[in-house]
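Let's study my pick:
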Amino acid sequence: MNTKENKVNYQPLLIFGGVIGIFFAFWVYLIASKNPFIKIFDTAIYNSIKNNNPVERQLTFYWTQLGNTLTITAFTVILVLFLVYQHNYVHAVFASLTMIAANACNSIIKNIIQRQRPRMDKAVHADGFSFPSGHSVGSMTLALVLIALIVVLVKKKPLKYWLIAVCVFFTLSIGFTRMYLHVHWPSDVLGGWCEGLAFSCLASWIFFRVLDKKQEKEKKE
C-alpha cells in the first residue's frame, strides 16, 4: 500500500479543526454554566425521539455496543498492530496517539463538568457522567482516523468512497443510539462529536504534514 500516489490537500484541516475546537470550548461553557439554550436544545430533540418499539430498542442496544470503550479500544489495538505489521509506523503512531488524546480529554472534561444523565429506562444501564458522550467521542475519533488512513492507503476510488461512507454512518448512528436509548442528552452527543472532530482534524493535519515531509525527503535522497 503506497501512499505516494495519494496526495492530500491537508491545509484546510488546521483551520476547520481550530474552528470546531473553538465551538466545542464554547459548547462546554454553555453546558457548565447551565445556559437556558441547552435545555431548550435538549428538550426539543429529546422529546421528538420516540423509542416505544421494543424490537427497535433491542436492536439499538446491540448496535450501541459497537461504540463502547471496550469495543473501540480493541479495534484500535488491532488497527495499530496491523499498521505496524505493514511497516506503516507513522500511521500507527497517528492512530494510537489520536485515540488516546481524545478519550483522555473526554474523561477529564466529564469529571470536571459532572453532568448527570437523563432518566434512563431500567432495562438500559450506563455508568459515569453524561457530558460529553464517550461513545460519540470514541466513534467520531475512530471514524476520522480511519478516513485519514483510507485517504492515503486506499487507491481505488469506489472502494475509498464506500469505506468513508461506512465510517460516517458508523459515528452518526452510534451518536443517535445514545439519544434513542435516552442515556445521553442531545447536547452530550453533539459535544462528543465536536470534540472527536476537533482532535481528529488537528491530528490528521499533523499526520498528513509528516507524510508530506517524509515523501519530500525521500525524493531528495
